Amino acid sequence: MHERLPERRYVITTPLGRWRAVVADAGLRELSLPRRVVRDGWHPGRGGGKGSVPELRDQEGALGRRVLKALAERLDGKRTNLPWSDFDLSGRPPFFTRAWKALYAIPFGEVRTYSQIAKSAGSPQAVRAAGGACGANPIVLFIPCHRVIASNGPGGFGAGLDWKRRLLALEGRDL
DNA sequence: ACTGAACTTAAAA
DNA sequence: TTTTAAGTTCAGT
């Protein structure tokens, strides 16, 4: 019981820093933001600590290639997206999963409120839980939790509002 | 088994 | 303007 399926951890170095990815045979399980943005004078591959996580490369298979390509294109301002079937969300809470699907349906460059997400996820009153789902979003960027704002303002963001603004800016959106 | 917190909201005080 | 009650999930205690 509680058998863990094989998961591989990688880093992806981009102009915006080192992203972390968790990949399983069933799909992408996690994609997380760099803790800090790369600045001039920062050298990928040193400093930063934990030296043991390998870089994700094209030869990691079709999924790896899609992830690398999609990430590079998105950071270049394009609308590229991964298919929902590339994600492995197994074992995640049902409401959160429905909420993430609702996020996934928000078009590039548009935003929705937490209450709209709650409604789309099938529990119009579960607004707080919608916020919880955003906070627990395992696949940043491609499941666009950054496109969810509060009814009265920008709302929050786990990695910091800085990142939320930055990701929205990539879509030509201001906060 | 409970409690509080988490990327909220709308309504009441 | 501040307080409060309302889903879902999880980490503590």
List the SSEs and their pairings.
Elements: E1 7-14, E2 17-24, E3 27-32, H1 62-75, H2 94-104, E4 112-113, H3 114-120, H4 127-135, E5 148-149, H5 161-169
Parallel strand pairs: 4-5
Antiparallel strand pairs: 1-2, 2-3
The chain binds a DNA duplex (13 and 13 nucleotides) through residues 93-96, 99, 113-115, 118, 123-137, 145-146, 148-152, 154-158, 161, 164.
Task: Work out the strand percent.
Answer: 5-15%
What best-fitting shape do the alpha-carbon axes yield? globular
Main beta-sheet annotation: 3 strands, antiparallel
Strand elements, count: 5
How far apart the termini lie comes to 46 Å
Class inferred from helices and paired strands: alpha+beta
Order of helix and strand elements from N to C terminus: EEEHHEHHEH
Strand order of the largest sheet: 1-2-3
Helix content: 25-40%
Oligomer: single chain
Question: What is Rg?
Answer: 16 Å
Explain the overall architecture.
The protein is an alpha+beta fold. Helix content is 29%, strand content 15%. The protein is built from 5 helices and 5 strands, in the order βββααβααβα. The strands form 2 sheets. A 3-stranded antiparallel β-sheet has the order 1-2-3, covered by helices on one side. The protein has a two-stranded parallel sheet with strand order 4-5. It starts with 6 loop residues before the first strand and ends in a 6-residue tail after the last helix. It binds a DNA duplex (13 and 13 nucleotides) through helix 2, helix 3, helix 4 and strand 5.
